[in-house]
Write a structure and sequence with these properties.
215 residues; 2 domains; 62% helix; 11% strand; transmembrane helix
C-alpha cells in the first residue's frame, strides 16, 4: 500500500512538472514571437542596406530577425511533443535547431559543412529508418491519462474518442458497460487494441496499462 502511494505521488509530481514545463515553454514562445514582431520592421530597411553595399550589415540584421523566429518554431515543436506524447517530433526539433545554428552561428566553412552533414543524417533517419506504419503485435506501456487521439497516432490504431478524451475514461466506461472489475492483469479488448491493466490505485483506478495493437 505504501509503495502504491509513493508511485501515485511520483506520478502526480511528474504530471505537475510536465504542466510546468509546458507552461514555461508557452511563455518562452510568446516572448520569442514578440521579439520577432519587434525585429520585423528591420526587414523594410534591408533593401536599402543591400543597395548601399552594406552586405555585412544586411546579413547581421537578417540573422537577428530569423533567430527568434526559428527559436519560436523549436519551442512550439517541443510543446507539441510534450502534449501529444510523440517522441518522433524530436527529429523535427533537431533539424530546425541545426538549421538555425548553420544560419545564425555558421561563421566558417567547417561549421557549415558539419551542420549540413548532420542535417542530411537526421533527414535520412527520419525518412528511411523510422516506421511508416506500426505492425500488429506492437505494445507500449503507458500512463492511461494519455489522450486517445495521441495513442491513435502513436500506435496507428483507431480507438473511438468521441465520448472520451483520455484513455482512462474510456477504460472505465467500457469496464462499467461490460461489468468488468478493473484490477491487475485484467485484459480489455477495445477496437483494434488489447489493453492490459498493470496497476491500479487504492480506488481501483488504472495508473499503468499495456496497450497492444492487434490488427
Amino acid at each position: 500500500m505504501f509503495l502504491k502511494r509513493v508511485e501515485h505521488m511520483l506520478t502526480r509530481i511528474t504530471e505537475f512538472f510536465l504542466v510546468a514545463i509546458t507552461v514555461s515553454l508557452l511563455l518562452i514562445s510568446f516572448i520569442l514571437f514578440v521579439e520577432f514582431l519587434l525585429m520585423s520592421p528591420n526587414l523594410f530597411h534591408l533593401e536599402e542596406v543591400i543597395f548601399a553595399d552594406h552586405i555585412k550589415d544586411a546579413t547581421k540584421s537578417l540573422k537577428e530577425i530569423i533567430s527568434p523566429l526559428l527559436m519560436f518554431v523549436i519551442v512550439v515543436e517541443l510543446i507539441i511533443m510534450l502534449i501529444k506524447h510523440q517522441p518522433r517530433i524530436v527529429f523535427d526539433v533537431l533539424l530546425i535547431a541545426i538549421a538555425r545554428e548553420i544560419i545564425i552561428a555558421g561563421h566558417n566553412f567547417r561549421d557549415v559543412l558539419l551542420g549540413t552533414i548532420s542535417l542530411l543524417i537526421l533527414f535520412f533517419i527520419r525518412k528511411f529508418l523510422t516506421l511508416k506504419s506500426i505492425p500488429p503485435g506492437t505494445a507500449v506501456i503507458i500512463d492511461p491519462y494519455i489522450t486517445i487521439e495521441s495513442l491513435n497516432e502513436m500506435l496507428d490504431v483507431h480507438i473511438p474518442f468521441e465520448e472520451d478524451k483520455y484513455l482512462v475514461d474510456l477504460i472505465e466506461r467500457i469496464a462499467e458497460e461490460r461489468g468488468i472489475v478493473l484490477k491487475k492483469r485484467k485484459m480489455i479488448d477495445i477496437a483494434n487494441v488489447k489493453i492490459e491493466i498493470l496497476d491500479v490505485d487504492e480506488r481501483g483506478k488504472p495508473v499503468l496499462v499495456r496497450v497492444m495493437k492487434t490488427a
